[in-house]
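Appendix C reproduces, verbatim, an entry submitted by the partner laboratory led by Prof. M.T., so that reviewers can inspect both the input and the predicted structure.
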Amino acid sequence: MKKLAVITGASSGIGEAIAKQLSAQGHPLLLLARRVDRLEALNLPNTLCKKVDITEKASFDEAVAAAEAMYGEADLLVNNAGVMLLGDMATQDAAEWQNMFNVNVVGLMNGMQSVLAPMIARNSGTIINISSVAGRKTFPNHAAYCGTKFAVHAISENVREEVAAANVRVITIAPGAVETELLSHTTSDDIKAGYESWKEDMGGILAADDIANAVTYAYNQPQNVCVREIVIAATRQQP
């Protein structure tokens, strides 16, 4: 059996694809999501499924401790859980901004802190943060979402510098448009229709497996090799 991998937001989309690939490669898993029934339905071997609100640090820590008691110390954390609520800054419900920052930023930091100290102590470990092209440039109706993903990029690079001397890797994956449930969280029908039209203009977008391939590629490099950032998008996606 290989080393324990922890994946947040593993009940669908990118997180589910990552879980399946890492399981196929022989890793025991801790899968975290709100919909634990979806996690259990994956029926992956050597897998602990936990219903966890990643914005609550204590429950995150408890889940990691339970998995480590079963499978050994976590060697990989994939911070994949995220919310995308697109909206016009002049009219968007402020509760949507708060929700995105809580999940996309605070939840990510909770995850990093839950595994970092042991990784530093043993001079080994990898954290992969799933960000977005929207963490590198802005898009219409993305102001708050871009803010969260710019934060993910900054936090990831800052922590990477802090832990590099301890041989711990922090990797940022920045996908463009991917076919997942993420857009369905947006409440504006007009914005969703515009996004769907943009996808059609590109002639199709990435699949969740494309991002999982990038994650496993980066993780499977030797520990002394850190692929600091991967930006991945459909060839026809221009911005």
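The two ends are 41 Å apart (CA to CA). Additional entries are available on request from the coordinating office.
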